[in-house]
Design a protein that fits this description.
Helix content: 10-25%
Largest sheet: 7 strands, mixed
Radius of gyration: 22 Å
Shape: elongated
Strand content: 25-35%
Number of helices: 5
């Protein structure tokens, strides 16, 4: 018998599976000072020593679960342990993405409010929160193909704000619609028209609910206050307007 491999027919006793290494990379996003921030580490080892990168690394051994590896790397490289949910973002496996050989990465995403300062460890020389727009604009060069992963992660986060009640997690327990709008503007990276935004929020049943008498703002009339509503899957969704999206699909 024979096996077809890379367009060639070879005997079964000769063919061997290609050597492929597996890593995990993490896109961790939060809001700080009204801006979307991304967790980056400074690589302490080659390749790309001294360059910014996403936290991540190789599986510890062949028995380690992929999600367990992602949490371990986040703990070891940035000292972060209180991430309630990591979701798989995508798989990245271009043959030349890593100079060490054929390395496939399973990237994970988390969008979490009120995260602490990271603490660098293991092979990370430093760990810090970096404004996401600086990374997206390539003002902060990233190692490997991590910019591509960040672009995908930020777009996933922006989409989550369209379809879920995630934005309310970044607000105080009781908030105004202006405070909620500021979350959307920070994540979407574009200013929003207040009247259209308020209309969309109030037209999405169960997204927010009244939380008591209006709050004095110091300027103008008091503002109505709200709490997160029971609906976590928004319908209709908070769709971004065409003016906030470029023809290529990314926000301005």
């Amino acid at each position: 018998m024979s096996t077809k491999s890379y367009g060639r027919v070879v005997p079964d006793d000769i063919w061997e599976p290609p050597r492929i290494l597996l890593t995990v990379d993490l896109v961790i996003l939060t809001l700080r000072d009204g801006r979307l921030h991304l967790l980056l580490v400074r690589r302490g080892v080659e390749p790309f020593a001294g360059q910014a990168a996403l936290p991540g690394g190789f599986l510890a051994d062949e028995r380690e679960d992929i999600l367990s590896a992602a949490r371990r790397e986040l703990r070891e490289e940035a000292g972060l342990t209180d991430i309630p949910h990591l979701e798989q973002l995508g798989t990245y496996g271009d043959p030349d993405r890593d100079p060490r050989g054929r390395v496939v990465s399973v990237a994970h995403l988390a969008v979490v409010p009120r995260l602490p300062e990271p603490i660098a460890g293991t092979d990370a020389a430093a760990a810090e929160w970096t404004p996401a727009d600086d990374v997206l604009a390539a003002r902060v060069p990233l190692a490997f193909d991590h910019l591509r992963i960040v672009v995908d992660g930020v777009e996933r986060a922006r989409s989550k704000l369209e379809h879920t009640g995630l934005a309310t997690a970044f607000c105080p327990e009781v908030f105004t619609l202006t405070e909620l709008q500021q979350v959307y503007e920070a994540v979407w990276g574009t200013p929003l028209d207040p009247r259209n935004f308020y209309r969309k929020v109030q037209g999405t049943k169960g997204f927010v609910v009244p939380a008591g008498p209006p709050r004095a703002t110091g300027t103008g009339r008091p503002a109505r206050v709200y709490r997160a509503g029971p609906c976590q899957n928004l319908y209709p969704p908070m769709i971004r307007t065409a003016s906030a999206v470029t023809p290529g699909g990314n926000e301005r």
